[in-house]
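Hi R.,

As promised on Friday, here is the backbone we talked about, encoded as structure tokens. Could you run it through your design pipeline when you get a chance and send me back a sequence?
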């Protein structure tokens, strides 16, 4: 995709956004009645479903259970139709297992697992449409689903990507086209907004140290902006549930 102009002379990106602007985020909680908690999230054209089951008794080998905390089971998958290439993605392929591990490590830092001893919490996320920032969208969707399930957490877990254009313009929340053309490196970050603690950080390439602080700052701001959106969705969902309870 070389030669694509990612930033116009007027300072607008391909989709009309400013460099430090998020893609449009739309989400909904409680989309599956069978799950203990669930959510659907769109971040730009990236679309994700998340479902939570538990806490419940650990399945399988008893050695997996921890006597003092809950064990997290995270599974990431991509729908066959999620990208332009209609290829079969076997369950448990290397990339999916790697992302599943990242999700597990991220949420172990946020969920109060000590409140659920000898139990298991299952987190399932599936990308229905992939258009950049897939892991970050999954983290955001899983956060909403966990809250829908009533799982105790230290804080929201909010994630975003950021990068630097070759002309040294830091940009936030890249689409697939942007991630694959003209980027020095893409930083993926997840934070607990209230404390500012970073619970996940990854770079897919080398970045000069002179640019690191700028990209870090943009990614952190993106996580804060995501928190504002998610918090609004949660408050609206709770208010709606409370009104239903009141009416009944």
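Update: got your reply. Pasting your designed sequence below so it's all in one thread:
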């Amino acid at each position: 995709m070389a030669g694509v102009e990612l930033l116009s002379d007027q300072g607008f990106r391909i989709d009309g956004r400013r460099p430090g602007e998020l893609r449009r985020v739309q989400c909904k909680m409680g989309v599956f009645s069978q799950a203990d908690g669930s959510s659907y999230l769109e971040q730009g054209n990236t679309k994700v479903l998340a479902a939570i089951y538990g806490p419940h008794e650990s399945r399988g080998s008893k050695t997996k259970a921890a006597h003092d905390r809950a064990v997290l089971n995270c599974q990431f998958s991509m729908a066959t139709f999620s990208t332009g290439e209609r290829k079969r993605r076997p369950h448990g392929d290397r990339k999916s297992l790697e992302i599943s591990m990242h999700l597990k490590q991220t949420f172990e830092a946020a969920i109060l697992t000590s409140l659920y001893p000898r139990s298991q919490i299952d987190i399932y996320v599936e990308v229905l449409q992939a258009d950049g920032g897939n892991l970050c969208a999954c983290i955001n969707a899983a956060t909403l689903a966990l809250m829908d399930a009533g799982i105790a957490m230290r804080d929201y877990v909010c994630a975003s990507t950021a990068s630097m254009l070759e002309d040294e313009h830091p940009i936030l929340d890249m689409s697939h086209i942007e991630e694959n053309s003209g980027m020095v490196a893409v930083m993926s970050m997840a934070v607990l907004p209230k404390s500012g603690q970073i619970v996940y950080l990854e770079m897919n390439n080398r970045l000069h140290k002179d640019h690191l602080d700028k990209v870090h700052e943009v990614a952190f701001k993106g996580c804060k902006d995501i928190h504002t959106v998610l918090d609004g969705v949660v408050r609206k969902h709770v208010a709606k549930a409370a009104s239903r309870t009141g009416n009944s």
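One thing I noticed while checking it: Residues 209-247 form the longest helix (39 residues).

Thanks again,
M.
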